[in-house]
Design brief:
The complex is a heterodimer of chains A (about 140) and B (about 475).
Chain A: E1 4-8, E2 13-19, H1 22-37, E3 47-54, H2 58-76, E4 78-88, E5 92-101, E6 115-116, E7 122-127, E8 130-138
Helix pairs in contact in A: 1-2
Chain B: E1 10-13, E2 16-19, E3 31-34, H1 37-43, H2 48-55, E4 61-75, E5 77-86, E6 91-92, E7 104-113, H3 114-117, H4 121-131, H5 146-162, H6 190-197, E8 209-218, H7 221-227, E9 233-240, H8 243-263, E10 276-277, H9 281-316, E11 327-332, E12 334-343, E13 346-355, E14 358-359, H10 370-373, E15 378-382, E16 389-394, H11 396-401, E17 405-406, H12 416-422, H13 428-434, E18 438-441, H14 444-449, H15 458-468, E19 471-484
Parallel strand pairs in B: 3-4, 18-19
Antiparallel strand pairs in B: 1-2, 2-3, 4-5, 5-13, 6-10, 7-9, 7-11, 8-9, 8-19, 12-13, 14-17, 15-16, 16-19
Helix pairs in contact in B: 4-9, 5-9, 6-8, 8-9
The chains are: A alpha+beta (about 140), B alpha+beta (about 475).
């Protein structure tokens, strides 16, 4: 099982993520998004924070979760690579996220992701113990 | 790749294509695409037409769901989409504006010719590149306190001019005189402020750029003269928006409207079209915060203008007024605005959403400064990196058909990953240099994603709006040098 794959879109970029559980799915989606922003292999530790978001369903929760991480990237100037989902219900997500303060010498930023959109967003359990998510980003 | 769109497109004439409202349940009106026959086959290659049909489902839509010839597949609205909704019973949709609120274009004139600028081009570009912050997460050179940021959100470019970064006449040549009414900083979240506060006075990345161009072709000499443009003249085009502030405002209100829709009993075919009644607390809140972001963007382009003037002053050892560095115009191409339009003989106050579309008011419109009221509004159409730009003027027909709107640029035809594949191993800056365009870029990856063949030919786009009569060509300007984030 791949963690994620990138979808072609004329103006923007889409992402499909996979997971054996919905927790793993949300973590892989976050990793996929940061792989669009930078080379996550270049990211070490040094920064940890808690993230909590609310949503009206899994799709809303996924979009809100990814947008919260984009906010951290831009406002706190950190690149993230480790996502531990601690609680995930239909309306609430709590996670610990880890990464490193952005260092322009060390981290090669590929592109700006303006936001995660709701366009064609999907979160589904395609078969027992296989979850799939799809989102599009505004680049 | 994306699935091709198989819905019905009826040819109205050579430049207009209709998606009948019978196409899809929920459509309240027809869709209309302005395009040539050749473009239509490209437009059908992805789901952009479906998005036009989706927009036609928005409650309170007035007139048709419109798409300009630079239409391409977006999220929610297509890029190049225009839709007007009524005040009572109509909705406002953050997805109809987009994340980069008031992404727009400004043109600064000079009285210098290509011959005078060419010997200094390298130096100009290097200085512009060092003096104007660009790139992912780029931060401005000035630090603004929270009270100052609130003034920027309320008063836009006017506040920046009052702080000494501009000429007093600058505001007359900016859409909304550089500050939209109805801005209320209280509607802007702490997160949005945090994301925006250090980015005022920065270009950003992606398709944003600053370009030195030379007026090469004049199509309508009388209008060019009225705009203060002449062949061989060097002009500067600035393309940027509201940076992280606008992105966060859109994110915040999209989320809020997801929740609000069920309360107002609204359902839309795409969640990215989330909306709320214009007169609801959520709708009003979004408009107030969007106006703040729009004002931030005009302030941003004003600060950049100031630094452009400083660089030219340093290189040419003359003052900016002596170099004729006045603003031609400044237009927003991602915005929603309250405007009065005549619909079936009746004047109506409408919320006009323009997402990747430019306002193009005709002569006589009271929103225009006296200078342009006689001739019509300058419309600034950037091409992609290195292919040049057009300056158009608004027409009476645009007022009647498109709520005074026209195209905004070239429009992508190739995904970023395809552009990346096709540009592998190529020296894009070198290729552009061979074509006579010098490039300074923060990121090679951006250059590769933004290769010229990833875009439609801006000339074809402009030809369609001219032939359809929704704007008229005034001049074409060829690029000399470009700065990319």
């Amino acid at each position: 099982m791949d963690k994620f794959e990138i979808l072609d879109h004329t103006a923007d970029v889409g992402l499909v993520a996979w997971g054996k559980s919905k927790e793993e799915l949300f973590a892989n989606a976050a990793l996929g998004m940061f792989s669009l922003i930078c080379d996550t292999e270049e990211v070490d530790g040094g920064f940890t924070t808690q993230v909590e978001v609310e949503g009206s369903d899994y799709e809303d929760l996924l979009v809100t979760w990814l947008n919260e991480l984009l906010y951290l990237f831009e406002a706190e100037e950190v690149v993230l690579k480790q996502f531990t989902i601690q609680e995930l219900g239909q309306y609430y997500l709590k996670a610990q996220v880890e990464g490193e303060p952005l260092d322009s010498q060390k981290h090669h930023i590929k592109r700006v992701v303006k936001a995660c959109t709701y366009y064609e967003v999907r979160v589904e359990e395609v078969e027992p113990q296989l979850w799939r998510a799809q989102v599009y980003f505004d680049i | 790749m994306a699935e091709a769109w198989k819905g019905p497109l009826q040819k109205v004439n050579d430049w207009r294509w209709l998606i009948p409202r019978s196409y899809k349940k929920g459509m309240l009106t027809d869709g209309m695409i302005y395009a040539s026959e050749k473009m239509i086959s490209a437009i059908r290659k992805d789901q952009a037409p479906e998005q036009i049909a989706n927009v036609a489902c928005l409650p309170g839509i007035v007139g048709k769901s419109l798409a300009m010839p630079d239409i391409h597949w977006g999220y929610g609205f297509p890029i190049g989409g225009v839709a007007a909704t009524q005040e009572k019973g109509g909705v406002i949709s953050p997805g109809g504006v987009g994340f980069d609120i008031n992404c727009g274009v400004r043109v600064i004139k000079t009285n210098l010719t290509e011959e005078e600028v060419k010997p200094h081009l390298e130096k100009l570009l290097t200085l512009l590149f060092t003096n104007i912050p660009s790139g992912v997460g780029s931060e401005g050179k000035l630090s603004f306190s929270i009270p100052e940021l609130e003034k920027v959100m309320e008063k836009g470019a006017r506040y920046i001019i009052s702080r000494g970064f501009g000429f007093s006449e600058d505001e007359e040549n900016i859409e909304e005189r550089g500050a939209m009414e109805g801005a209320n900083p209280e509607a802007v979240s702490a997160k949005a402020r945090e994301r925006g506060k250090d980015q005022l006075g920065s270009l950003g990345s992606g398709n944003h750029f600053l370009e030195l161009e030379v007026v090469e072709q004049v199509f309508r000499p009388d209008l060019a003269e009225a705009f203060g443009l002449f062949p061989g003249q060097v002009i500067i085009m600035v393309h940027t928006g509201s940076r992280g502030l606008g992105h966060q405002v859109c994110t915040d209100y999209l989320q809020e409207m997801q929740k609000a829709m069920s309360r107002y009993d609204i359902s839309v075919p795409d969640r990215q079209l989330a909306c709320a009644p214009c007169d609801s607390p959520e709708g009003r809140g979004y408009f107030e915060a969007m106006a703040c972001s729009a004002n931030f963007a005009w302030a941003n382009r004003q600060l950049i203008t100031h630094w452009v003037r400083e660089v030219f002053e340093q290189v040419f050892q003359k003052s900016a007024p002596a170099l004729g560095m006045f603003i031609l115009y400044d237009v927003a191409h991602n915005i929603a605005k309250w405007e009065e339009h005549e619909v079936e003989g009746k004047k109506m106050k409408l919320c006009v959403h323009r997402k990747g579309a430019t306002r193009a008011f005709s002569a006589g419109h009271l929103a225009l400064s006296p200078r342009y009221r006689e001739v019509g509004q300058p419309v600034l159409i950037p091409g992609d990196m290195g292919t040049g730009s057009y300056i158009l003027v608004g027409t009476e027909l645009a007022m009647k058909e498109t709520f005074g709107s026209t195209c905004h640029g070239a429009g992508r035809v190739m995904s970023r990953s395809e552009a990346d594949r096709r540009s592998k191993g190529r020296d894009i800056a070198g290729e552009l240099k061979e074509r006579g365009v010098l490039v300074r870029a923060e990121s090679k990856a951006t250059l590769r994603e933004e290769i010229p063949e990833a875009y439609k030919d801006v000339g074809e786009v402009v030809e369609v709006v001219e032939r359809a009569g929704i704007s008229k060509k005034v001049v074409y300007a060829r690029p000399l040098g470009v700065i990319k984030g």
